[in-house]
């Protein structure tokens, strides 16, 4: 088990390294291949009135005139040892882990990422609890009451949940519950948990439910399908034949088999969300990683986009690692070697 | 049945649009185009103060769908930022907080009076008002203003702000106070401070409109001891009625009263609310919903509501009564590139002027609510602008016969083929390209539509002459807003051929010595009325070259929540005047 974890961790680090190289190449090599000059690339970081000399000076300060491997080397070195950036008026030190420096906002990227991470984690975990509870619960009950009104109604709602985009359900929920009824806080009202837990929950309740509505639907359908299959297995018949009560049959034997595929998909979903729930954060104006990424893309702020991409990749890799380890807990047949 | 209902709704919508635009200013008048007509109801905040009040107190809640370029007065160039900055900073001059065209007039702010020019218009002297203090109680001196302007010259550190001072001051090689041999950062010889209350600007060339420069945020004083360079935007030291209480970059900030602001030194600002909150990066549709529901007071960007809210407001009489639809000092137009054959021939350019159906251009921007059809470059809200229509056509739908005659004179009787560029993310510009493709097609001019990313449009594509020429971009859809509402502020950057750079241009096409000469004349005309006329002559000269096809003078639909008091559109910014606003609750 221990050796397996170490092997997976080493694999994760290598994967992150590859992701960082590919991402760096997409942002800094591909434009050059497509014909952009270093001045073209630097022009995004100067004002609209900048002349050629100012743009070239910025290209040099950004290191665009250096070979790409040197630029990448500096970026990686910055993550471990920090980096210095010449902003014109002064040389700014970006302490480790330095994930780059935004010449548009004139700030290091890492503190921004840390700042935004709290919002995204709050959103993703809260929503995950709701969608797991409702999705799996609805799926199990639907499977056990197959063909009933509950089954048909819940699967119908689940289909709607999967089909309706979040920018629709999000704005609709704000219009009804926030502006219409005044029950919840309007968009853009996020407060840190440490500052005021009640306001924190108040600002997140609608995004949680909206995001959970979207994801719960998929989990309900997956759970129902797997559960139906499982409940027809021989071991379930055996369990019933042994005289176990139905509750034990469903929870201990049926549900346990369902959990493995649920866990797999949950790991992926949660990892992706932790990297930034772009649509939900944009709809509710939550200052999380997803909104940060969108704003960075709109303003062509490549160091920020690179930073978010790496953080997102890290979350996905970690989430998958955790899921793989949890397989053994959920399913005793799994052994790591 | 459904079709019938749709038709009815469309008709109702059109009637609403027409009713609203009829109430709106403009209507073809070139005198004061933002003059309102009703005391309440639609456009009640145009041309006069709606819900006037002197009641102090409360919190003014504002939001921004994006974020500031910078809160630093030396590093900002957004119109809404220049409007808002007057709440926490005092420049030498400012736009008068008054409705309509009165709001486009300059009035002294930190200065005691307008600038005193020398006979050759190359030296401008201002007296600083006594008793003005920073938020820490330190008295503001002329050296603080000099330092502020000096640091704004450093475009490595402050890339966002305008470059007028770089262009006009007699810099003698000076680049930055951060690289200054003077320990106080006051080595710039182009600005003198003979005493604490006098500041003298020395220009490299004569300029009659320098008071507008003195009204830019870069003249808002900055105390050198508190200057943190690129970080100053995080803690700007206030001289206005409000100071920063909190500032979370990219998220929000709060302004509270500045105890050291003395109303006796400030005849311009009412400073009604006790507090101003600003939420940043808020979903644009959400902002509109919050304005309508009363959860928010102002959308600070000041370009009007989004299409979804616009439809909702126009279809609802009660909501419409709280809306304003003013003209802006913004033009949507299309450059005609003389570098691309056969558009190097003026007759071919004229053929485009005649063939274009301007009603299609207007539809692309949302019809009458989105703007008025333009026949020249200078918007009517700019004092001195005249009605110029050198290429008239019935109902602005284009004159096909004259277009064909021009094509024959150009040696292209069967038309020609060229490309038209627009900004990819701007659906309205796409609609313009498609509309022009259709209307120019009537005379055999075939347009191939090309889109380029908005962020790099001026720097890498349409605004880069080499690229535009080599990619056969004969037409380039664009838009322009005035830095300030006068001829210089609007026209110079898009008509002066000498401003054209290898990349990053704002003038994509107008290259004519006659236009340049007209600009030089206007810039040195001392008499204000004559100067306004001279800029109108620049407008006419530019239209004679046929290098630009005017499309639409922009209008925005603004929603005015009931909580707001003292509301009016100022022609200084074509937005609600943020220094005047108050709240009922």
TrEMBL record, chain A:
Q: How does it sit in the membrane?
A: Multi-pass membrane protein
Which residue ranges does UniProt annotate as crossing the membrane?
A: 12-34, 119-144, 156-180, 200-222, 258-279, 305-330
The places in or outside the cell where this protein is found are:
Cell membrane
Listed InterPro entries? BPD_transp_1_N, MetI-like, MetI-like_sf
Q: Which Gene3D superfamilies match?
A: MetI-like (1.10.3720.10)
Predominant place of localization:
membrane
> ABC transmembrane type-1 domain: from which residue to which, for each copy?
117-327
Q: Does the keyword Kinase apply?
A: no
- Report whether Transmembrane helix shows up as a keyword of the record: yes
Q: Which UniProt keywords apply?
A: Cell membrane, Membrane, Transmembrane, Transmembrane helix, Transport
Its family? Belongs to the binding-protein-dependent transport system permease family.
The entry's protein name is Binding-protein-dependent transport systems inner membrane component
Which species does the entry assign this protein to? Kibdelosporangium persicum
UniProtKB/TrEMBL annotation, chain B:
* CDD domains for the chain: PBP2_clavulanate_OppA2
**UniProt signal peptide:** 1-24
Primary localization? membrane
Superkingdom of origin organism: Bacteria
Q: Which UniProt keywords apply?
A: Signal
Statement: the UniProt record of this protein carries the keyword Transferase: no
Annotated localization = Cell membrane
Q: Which organism is it from?
A: Kibdelosporangium persicum
In its UniProt entry, what is this protein called?
Oligopeptide ABC transporter, periplasmic oligopeptide-binding protein OppA
Provide the family line: Belongs to the bacterial solute-binding protein 5 family.
Q: Which residues form the Solute-binding protein family domain?
A: 105-497
Indicate how the chain sits in the lipid bilayer.
Answer: Lipid-anchor
